[in-house]
């Protein structure tokens, strides 16, 4: 018999799932563009941040543009970008 790997969708990652060096703590919300999660840095326990994942990876160009704009913005009401990738 073949063993199947469950397909993980950005909008429904279970608590404890590891994405890169982040571990999902809980889901913050889902919108039209993506899903946001509270995550903990695996290498630095206690460091908790937010992770946003695109629902449609084909929108990578739009996502990069948002990251570039947010990275340039310095304001208390704009989140700071700690990293990005695919």
What descriptive keywords fit this protein?
86 residues, 4 strands, 4-stranded antiparallel β-sheet, Phosphorylase Kinase, domain 1, nucleotide-binding, Kinase-like_dom_sf, protein kinase activity, alpha+beta, Protein kinase domain-containing protein
Q: Strand-residue fraction?
A: 25-35%
Approximate helicity band: 10-25%
Average pLDDT taken over every residue: 85
One letter per element, helices H and strands E, the order comes to EEEEH
Shape descriptor reads: globular
Distance between the termini: 32 Å
CATH class: Alpha Beta
Tell me the total number of β-strands: 4
Rg, please? 14 Å
The CATH topology is given as Phosphorylase Kinase, domain 1
Structural summary, described in words:
By secondary structure, the protein is an alpha+beta fold. It has one domain (12-72): Phosphorylase Kinase, domain 1 (2-Layer Sandwich). The chain is built from 1 helix and 4 strands; from the N terminus they run ββββα. Strands 1-2-3-4 form a 4-stranded antiparallel beta sheet, with no helix packed on it. The longest helix is centred in the C-terminal third of the chain and has 13 residues, at 60-72. The chain is globular. The protein starts with 17 loop residues before the first strand and ends in a 14-residue tail after the last helix. The model has no long low-confidence stretch (mean pLDDT 85). InterPro entries: Kinase-like_dom_sf, Prot_kinase_dom, Protein_kinase_ATP_BS. One of its GO terms (molecular function) is ATP binding. This is Protein kinase domain-containing protein. It comes from Archangium violaceum Cb vi76. Residues 22-86 form the Protein kinase domain.
């Amino acid at each position: 018999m073949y063993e199947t790997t469950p397909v993980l969708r950005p909008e429904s990652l279970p608590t404890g799932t590891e994405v890169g060096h982040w571990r999902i703590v809980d889901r913050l919300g889902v919108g039209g563009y993506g899903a946001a999660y509270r995550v903990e840095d695996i290498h630095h326990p206690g460091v908790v941040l937010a992770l946003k994942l695109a629902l449609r990876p084909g929108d990578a160009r739009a996502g990069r543009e948002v990251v570039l704009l947010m990275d340039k913005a310095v304001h208390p009401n704009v989140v700071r970008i700690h990293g990005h990738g695919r």
